[in-house]
Amino acid sequence: MKRLMLAALVAVMPVASFAIGDEDETPPKTTPTTATCKATQIWDEKTKTCVDAQDSRFDDGQRYEGVRELAYALHLERALGVLSTMSNQQDARVLTYRGFIARKSGKMQDALAFYAAALEVDAENILTRSYLGQGFVTMGRTKEARQQLDRIRELGGAGSWAETSLARALETGQTYGY
């Protein structure tokens, strides 16, 4: 019985880890957070209302999803406002999205500083490396962008959205948000 359970677990593990890793690699679905809510509000599915992101009913995971959605829709000031409600401002995800927002706002030096800080927290964060590489592409620093692409691949990110988007940016000169 134990062998059967172990075999079943091993059989589903690649699928489970792909699903977890895939979470940040696809554009977020548009919800009322983008379409209806204002300022630092995000959609509360339970009450079907817009609620300020700092409300205690939300955890940082829910806030992060709101940030992703707003950043993808280029509601950068609102995304920044929701980021400021997250409990750990030194979390690699927070720093990465601060870098993303700075990059999309044209503040490249700020973006590079946020990405560097995120990598100090989590040197293996391939999303941060992709966004950093895309920042280098924007700045015409393709050698440094290629170094980030190589590092993403070394970290096992070959075939991921992080690798694909940076490779495309290097090929076309166009950067991607997701």
Order of SSEs: HHEEHHHHHHH
Kindly report how far apart the N and C termini lie.
43 Å
> Averaging pLDDT over every residue, what do you get?
87
Oligomer: single chain
Poorly predicted regions: 1-23
Q: What is the count of helical runs?
A: 9
Strand order of the largest sheet: 1-2
Examine the secondary-structure arrangement and name the CATH architecture of the largest domain. Answer: Alpha Horseshoe
| CATH fold naming of the largest domain | Serine Threonine Protein Phosphatase 5, Tetratricopeptide repeat
Fraction in beta strands: under 5%
Rg from Cα = 18 Å
Secondary structure elements and pairings:
Blueprint: H1 2-22, H2 32-35, E1 41-44, E2 49-52, H3 60-72, H4 76-83, H5 92-104, H6 108-121, H7 126-138, H8 142-154, H9 161-172
Helix pairs in contact: 3-4, 3-5, 4-5, 5-6, 5-7, 6-7, 7-8, 7-9, 8-9
